[in-house]
Specification:
This protein has helices at residues 11-21, 31-35, 47-54, 59-71, 78-92, 97-108, 116-123, 125-139. The chain folds into 2 domains: 1-40, no CATH class; 45-139, Arc Repressor Mutant, subunit A. It contains 8 helices and no strands. It is an all-alpha fold and 141 residues long.
Length: 141
């Protein structure tokens, strides 16, 4: 991480990030690419992921509904945010993927990565919601 120039903060933050990508990473040299977005709030967005997930008709509205639901979550864990997402999908009458895909792009800038709910937990509530706002404004351009 140091060699890649990624300021990860504390060892605890790095350990949390590594834990959620452990099953995905095949080579140690791949680690920075898998977790860099967790440590920078100005990560780039993959244009293809934006087109496919964020600019899909209705996606920004669903993302806004998910954000409104997540604002109410007080115990911010992967279990509680998963439940909130599933409840929001049910309330909107859509499959969970209709929320998962735009949410993943919003918080990571890409369509693939570690588990979404684990990303939410590692980022924390404030950073997750700030990323939703950034994604909505960027996708609306």
């Amino acid at each position: 991480m140091d060699k890649a120039g990624i300021a990860y903060g504390t060892d605890e933050a790095l350990i949390q990030a590594l834990a959620i990508v452990k099953a995905k990473v095949k080579h140690l040299s791949d680690v920075p690419d898998w977790i860099a977005f967790l440590f920078s709030d100005t990560f780039p967005f993959d244009p293809e992921a934006v087109e496919k997930s964020l600019k899909k008709p209705g996606a920004l509205g669903r993302l806004q509904a998910l954000e409104a639901s997540l604002v109410k979550v007080s115990d911010w864990t992967h279990v509680t945010v998963e439940a909130a997402l599933k409840e929001t999908a049910a309330a909107l009458g859509v499959k969970t993927g209709e929320l998962v895909h735009p949410a993943r792009v919003a918080v990571s800038g890409r369509s693939v990565g570690p588990g979404l709910y684990e990303i939410f937990e590692v980022l924390g509530k404030d950073r997750t919601l700030a990323r939703f706002e950034r994604a909505r404004s960027m996708a609306a351009e």
